[in-house]
Amino acid sequence: MDRIHLNFGLNFPTGDTGKRSDTPAGENQKLPYPMQLGSGTYDPILAFTWVRKYSEWSMGLQSDCTLRFGENDEDYKLGNEYGVTVWVARNLNEQASLSFRVDAELREKIKGRDKELNPNMVPTARADLSSMRTVNGLVGLNLYKSKGLFAGNRLAVEIGLPLYQDLDGPQLRSDYGFTIGW
User: What's the rounded Cα separation, in Å, for the pair 129 and 109?
Assistant: First the structure.
């Protein structure tokens, strides 16, 4: 059985793009791009999910993107973001399944420049060093309770490791990821 989901969302410019703080460069300094909480633009989010289920197996693909239109009040726009994840899962019994997933993400560099930021003071103030490409491999365990006290509840645990990371400039590398959800 196949299922297809189409999603649409919209980010509103509610996060700050002009945050300031005391830094080693002085008091009340404009913080670099990664330390700003918002994009300052209206950003549509589009996503597509396809899932195929068999009696003991399931597989799927999900693709999403956040598109940035126009510049914010600081004369720049964050780069578009694209993601793809593919997975396969196997039922172990009626209450447990094991999953394997590959997740890829691409973030384009910032276009334009905040004129209050000095790119010579700190590398994170350089718009040209803001893109990244990553691929992660993940293994997960899903536990589902169909009867009793916790009927209808699911506990999911997933651990992942980077398979590929290409980061422009000084960005945080990932060593591993761990997610637990109920």
Answer: 7
